Amino acid sequence: MSQSMTRSPLAPASFPDLPVIKGVRFASASAGVKYQDRTDVMLALLAPGTSIAGTFTRSLTRSAPVRDCQAKLGDDCKDGAAILVNSGNSNAFTGHFGQTSVEQITSAVANVTEIPETRIFTASTGVIGEPLPHDRIIAKIDELADGLSEARLKDAAEAIMTTDTFAKGASAQVEIEGQTVSIAGIAKGSGMIAPDMATMLVYIFADAKMEQSALQSLLSSICDRTFNCITVDSDTSTSDSLMLCATGASGVDATGNDAFASALETVMLELSHQVVRDGEGATKFVEIQVTGAETDSDAKTHGLSIANSPLVKTAVAGEDPNWGRIVMAIGKSGAAADRDLLSISFGDVLVAEKGWVSPNYREDDAAELMKQDEIIIKVDLGLGEGHATVWTCDLTHGYIEINADYRS
Amino acid sequence: MSQSMTRSPLAPASFPDLPVIKGVRFASASAGVKYQDRTDVMLALLAPGTSIAGTFTRSLTRSAPVRDCQAKLGDDCKDGAAILVNSGNSNAFTGHFGQTSVEQITSAVANVTEIPETRIFTASTGVIGEPLPHDRIIAKIDELADGLSEARLKDAAEAIMTTDTFAKGASAQVEIEGQTVSIAGIAKGSGMIAPDMATMLVYIFADAKMEQSALQSLLSSICDRTFNCITVDSDTSTSDSLMLCATGASGVDATGNDAFASALETVMLELSHQVVRDGEGATKFVEIQVTGAETDSDAKTHGLSIANSPLVKTAVAGEDPNWGRIVMAIGKSGAAADRDLLSISFGDVLVAEKGWVSPNYREDDAAELMKQDEIIIKVDLGLGEGHATVWTCDLTHGYIEINADYRS
């Protein structure tokens, strides 16, 4: 939870220029929930008629705000909607006080914005198990409402950071029937990142028009190929939330539009990769391409077994093309594999085929490749057509420093 | 695979005095498979009439010796049996060459010892994916046969070490019908340790008499409560093998004898704990007691989710009573849990109850407790009678050093 971490070596050069999304305005403020001298609350105000889809952690110990959002999702937003997020405290495992905090905050936002309380979503991220000082947040709601602007999405991205070393944003624009539709999203997340969820906190906004049910089904499908395919440390957060808001302000209906779906997937993929690039202690960005599995689901199981293996991740950190550890991770994954059909490559260097080291393999070639910042590991099972790609980072002293050497 | 590691701070003061097990003799030799200036092959020769039970890794990429042992297990040993183990090379992912190496070795041992080839078991531990230089081992078989002695079990324990920082042994004796029955075992293992297996390499010998099928069923049942309840890094080896040999030389039939089963469990528990105490980079030994789960299986799932969580393990390394991470690990485990019924203690310090921090909890008390070498984490789910205990170690810079900083 330190704010003094050095910027990740895998971070993009700078925060991207994000297009304005009509129909949504943002503000941030410094409420002092835990951090001092920085913003820690963001408010997004959505126009009447917005559709909101979401995916959330499946953790059985998920936080009070997650439970509240899940209960509220699905209804229309004919009178508008709002999202309020704080960093510094996750309001998770806070007993019945957790729900009280959520109710106090949503009620206060409703009073100031005149949006129905049932259309006010919240999220909290930070330390688990401490009561949320919601009064500090409530004291800032007038200031937030006064500061709302279409141009402040970057400020929102900064306010939701915890152990992140850089603010995360991505956008795409697409022409539909001669009109421009814009998508822009922000994310936070760095540790406690594992699949079966929708990463830490992600908010994506589009000015397209789409019914809530269609938007939800599009989101869930893309989420399975993006955020649910990343892992930093195999640990699943109690707060993971992803919300996609289609304001409809462009007047363009994007239902069933492939270009829109593809643009949305680009934004989600980019944001999910930025989370991996900010993985705690990460020095390498690793893409694991699995092909030839019996099913897509088997391919993903193998990919995540490799991506979550501490021995594979430390080998990558040590720039060691230790393919034996990849064999190990495939063997333990539980998905179908036949040792004697297996091929493994690092980038374009074929390391192993048919269950043994390739005759042309020279370890120097692979060792050279492992020095790069971005590593591609390819595994072919030789069994069928199932494929999946997952992304992770290496496991370094930096991870231990962040999580063991400092009290959080 | 370095031999220069400092002895684990959690190691026992010294190797225990092991009783002689009648009916089995041991030898070790320096074959130079990979390591220089140390022993790396051990031979155990078992008397006619011995029963052998075994459990092995379930990895789908398991090694050639493991496959060979699994195929041979079950038959009687009326003409005796032998076990030959090398360290330095695991003979895993070595294609059809792997089986050839096994055949060459077992055939050579059969020639020298006059034991049928089908009763000769082998194991190999060390680097994955390199051809086993079996000629170096075969060249030492005469020397091994000449050096056999009832008193050399400690030598055998030393010969099978890889990243281990200490040799592992344990024993028990029990009176059955006025006669003493002795059990003694050795183990190796330090990294790539995860459950669903029988840890790295474990050999246990008893002079009791028992039919193979009864011995196997006893072994499997105890294994589920001992070796299958430990984890160092959640990574499952391709070579894990545990063999239990009952020579019958005491003349005492231990079939169905509770005292024998209990003594055997003591030996297996002690050996499994020694493997955790030698976990790569370990500075803390952690026992996780889970009670109140819906089923025993759910309790074990929760326990292993906590034990395998990098965030819990780094918190222990940092002496941080970060119980929020335990809540997280329970939430993600997939087994049944109800946030509002959960209680968590560190040792005797009650930290959380009914889904929130306990009113009497003082973090200083827990922080003091976390400074100890041995930490007990207690979790009560409040749902039923299911319980399980699992063991692990912390995740430290030492683990990263062993697995990333040096090429293996």
From TrEMBL, chains A, B:
Highest taxon above the source species: Bacteria
Q: Where in the cell is it found?
A: Cytoplasm
Q: Which reaction does it catalyse?
A: N(2)-acetyl-L-ornithine + L-glutamate = N-acetyl-L-glutamate + L-ornithine; L-glutamate + acetyl-CoA = N-acetyl-L-glutamate + CoA + H(+)
Which EC class does it fall in?
transferase
Q: Which InterPro entries match?
A: Arg_biosynth_ArgJ (IPR002813), ArgJ-like_dom_sf (IPR016117), ArgJ_beta_C (IPR042195)
> Which pathway, metabolic or otherwise, does it act in?
Amino-acid biosynthesis; L-arginine biosynthesis; L-ornithine and N-acetyl-L-glutamate from L-glutamate and N(2)-acetyl-L-ornithine (cyclic): step 1/1; Amino-acid biosynthesis; L-arginine biosynthesis; N(2)-acetyl-L-ornithine from L-glutamate: step 1/4
| Sites where the protein binds substrate | T162, K188, T199, E280, N403, S408
Could you tell me which Pfam families the record lists for this protein?
ArgJ
Q: What is its EC number?
A: 2.3.1.35, 2.3.1.1
Site feature location: Cleavage: A198, T199
Q: Entry's CDD domains?
A: OAT
Q: Which UniProt keywords apply?
A: Acyltransferase, Amino-acid biosynthesis, Arginine biosynthesis, Autocatalytic cleavage, Cytoplasm, Multifunctional enzyme, Transferase
The annotated active site, in chain numbering, is T199
- Name the residues annotated as site: Involved in the stabilization of negative charge on the oxyanion by the formation of the oxyanion hole: T125, G126
Describe, as the record does, how this protein assembles with itself and its partners: Heterotetramer of two alpha and two beta chains.
What does this protein's UniProt record list under function? Catalyzes two activities which are involved in the cyclic version of arginine biosynthesis: the synthesis of N-acetylglutamate from glutamate and acetyl-CoA as the acetyl donor, and of ornithine by transacetylation between N(2)-acetylornithine and glutamate.
PANTHER family, A to Z: ARGININE BIOSYNTHESIS BIFUNCTIONAL PROTEIN ARGJ, ARGININE BIOSYNTHESIS BIFUNCTIONAL PROTEIN ARGJ, MITOCHONDRIAL
Annotated family: Belongs to the ArgJ family.
Protein's UniProt name:
Arginine biosynthesis bifunctional protein ArgJ
Provenance organism? Parasedimentitalea denitrificans
